[in-house]
Amino acid sequence: MLRNSWGKAEGESISSRIMGRVRSDAPLKNKIDFAQKKLELQIVNLEGIGEKLQKKHDMIFEKIVNAQKNNKAGYAHAYAGELAQVRKMRSMVGGAKLSMEQIKLRLDTVSELGDVVVTLSPCMSVIKGLAPSLSGLMPDANASMQDLSQILGDVMSGSKVGAGADMGIGKEANADTLAILEEAHNVIAGQTKTAIPDVPESLKREIVEKRSDVLL
């Protein structure tokens, strides 16, 4: 009987042991679910902002075309400058949305595989990097990102995965996770306040007002 028990323990994979520990911890699973819901909400918000920016982009571009048709070079130039800002903001929003979608994908992996530390460690740095880029368009971005960081930190500290099990997770899995998140983060890495012009107050107010429509 002792031999059978030993053989069963030897045959059990590290992933299975980790998965069992995570799934048996109900509070931990609840925290992961809560983090997923907050991410879904932010993704929806960003999608709504992206749609508004796209509409504004099309409207301004049409004004540029009309100005050029009417030989109003000054107006066309002014509109082109405004359109350049809108395009940068649209790119920033799209990059942030992609990053959050990748983080949510990693959280789904945590729920299924249980590799908590390997998956969530790079997510923390990505989330912290998103807040400065989004604060101009989403006033509550800083608070929301802090909440997510706190939740994920609680998940990591609350997980019962020991150091020995951590060492058993393949280096390739960690590298793949980092590569995916790094790819998403690079989309917005260069778009800091020094590279992106300040959001015009009129456009900021318009986006914030219209953003409420997405939540209704």
Count of discrete alpha- or pi-helical segments spanning 4 or more residues = 9
Helix content: over 70%
Beta-strand portion reads under 5%
Biggest β-sheet description: none
Q: Over the alpha carbons, how many angstroms does the gyration radius reach?
A: 23 Å
Describe this structure in words.
The chain contains nine helices and no strands. The chain is mainly α and 216 residues long. The chain has a domain at 41-190. α4 packs antiparallel against α5 (116-134) and α5 (116-134) packs parallel to α8 (171-189). Mean pLDDT is 68; it is low at 5-11, 160-173 and 191-197.
Can you give keywords for this protein?
216 residues; mainly alpha; 9 helices; 85% helix; elongated
Topology overview:
Layout: H1 2-11, H2 14-24, H3 26-69, H4 73-113, H5 116-134, H6 141-158, H7 163-168, H8 171-189, H9 201-215
